Structures are given as structure tokens and as C-alpha cells.
Amino acid sequence: MNIWVVSGCSSGLGYCWTDSIIRERKGKVIGITRSEEAAREMSEIYQDKFIPCISDVGDEKQLAEKLTALVKEVGTPSRIVTSAGYAQFGTLEDLSNEQLRDQFKTNVEGTLNVIKPLLPAMRQLEEARILLVSSMSGVSCWPLLGAYQMSKHAIEAIGETLRLELGNTNIQVGIIQPGPYKTGWATLSARREKIGEAYDEEALKQQATCGFTVEEPSESLPFFWKMFDSAEMPLRIATSESFVKRACVQAEENMRAWRAPFE
Questions:
Q1: Least confident interval from 154-158, 178-182, 210-214
Q2: pTM over 0.85
Q3: Which of 22, 80, 113, 257 is the most buried (most CB within 10 A)?
Q4: Active-site residue flag, 148
Q5: How many other β-carbons are positioned within 10 Å of the β-carbon of residue 110?
Q6: Which of 191, 241, 222, 180 is closest to 12 using CA atoms?
Q7: Residue among 15, 46, 148, 181 flagged as catalytic
Q8: How many Cα atoms are found within 13 Å in the side-chain-facing hemisphere of 149?
Q9: What residue ranges in the chain does DSSP mark as E strands?
Q10: Contacts of 90 (CB under 8 A, 6+ apart)
């Protein structure tokens, strides 16, 4: 039985994946959440298969202390999934530096805060895997999502760098790029800054509408499990075919632009 650590376990994709890990794969999950109420409810549902770790992923010291204690109590996790994060909406001009720092503290620092305390113990295992949760916004950009997109581009860099740095170990690293799902990402968990009068708010909102089908979180499971069931963990996998087509067009445009000065 694998022991998992899942941040952002109490909502959205993190909850969906936690449920699948426990119900379908009979795994045990150390679930990181800020909500004591959610932790209590999940403990009631999943009993001894769910071990709550109540902490903000942005609190490096507290999280390290709690994870280290739980590893001693429960055992060393062989799987990490970094689902915790939120979206800060607003133009880059209108957002304050504090809002940008908060976005990075949760999405970027929070990702590393989950992983780093666990690496020494995971090195002692025969095999381990880390899945970083990026987004379509880790590859493409839309207006009004600059802060979030900056943080998810950083997740892409963290994933690639960790994969290289841990390449001679038993720890594999991969990145998942979810498409749009019905998770409350743009509503319940989002933070919004008023758009300044210098901008055409409706035009920006129209540009920011991706037009892709918004699916149920369970539709992400085949992609999620491919990251863990493949003999070699893929570097990255995207969950939206429409997004992949868009990303490929962008990649071809980038390649032409890179080559142009040398032709």
C-alpha cells in the first residue's frame, strides 16, 4: 500500500484525486488542508485511510514540522501530489506587489514547502514519484490571469529542474496541466482585484474566455493515473485535447520566431 501526500486535498481536483487514491487504489493519504472542518469531515468519511495535516502550504516551518512528525508516525510517502493553489484575477497594473507575493507564496513556495521536507526520507525508498500540478496557464497566457500564469510557469520550471536534479535517484518527477474543470477555481477559491478604468473590462473578459469545455473533475482521473501507472513517469501530460491543439500551434509559432534571426 502506497502512502501519499496530497496538498489541497479538501477541494477541487485535489479532493477528486484523494477520493480515487483511497477508494479505488486503497492507498493511505496524508492530506494537507487549511480547513479543520474539511479535515474532520474527510477523516469521518475515509477513517484511517486519511491522515489530516492541517497547515497552510505557505507556512514553511509549520508544514515541515507537521510533515516530519507524520512521516515518523505513519511512514514515508512514496507519492506526492501538489494540488494546493488559487487564482488571483486582475491586470498586472492593478495588482499590488503584495498580491503577487501572496500568489507566489501559495502556488510556488507552497509547492516546494510540501516537497522539500519529504525528499530525504523518499530517497531511502526503492521507488517514489512526485506530481506537480501546473495548468493550461503554465503554457499559455490570457489577460486578467497574469499573477496566476506567472506562478504556473514557475511550476513548470520547478518540475523540469527537479526532474533533472533528482535524475540519478529513485524519485521520478512529472507535471500535469489540467484543463478547465468544475472545481470552483474561478469562483469559490479565486481572489479578484477591481479592473482599473484605463481598461475595457468587458473586452478583456471576452479575451480571457478560453472557450474550452468545462468538465467534471472525475474526467481528469485517466490522465492523473497515467502519471503513476506508466513504467516511466511522463515529464508532463495535459488533460484537454483542445488546449493541446492550441499549445502546439503556439509552439510552432515560437519555433518560427526563434529560427527567424538565423535564417
A1: 210-214
A2: yes
A3: 113
A4: yes
A5: 25
A6: 180
A7: 148
A8: 15
A9: 3-7, 28-33, 50-54, 79-82, 88-89, 128-133, 171-177, 191-192, 236-238
A10: 99, 144, 146, 147, 192, 193, 194, 195
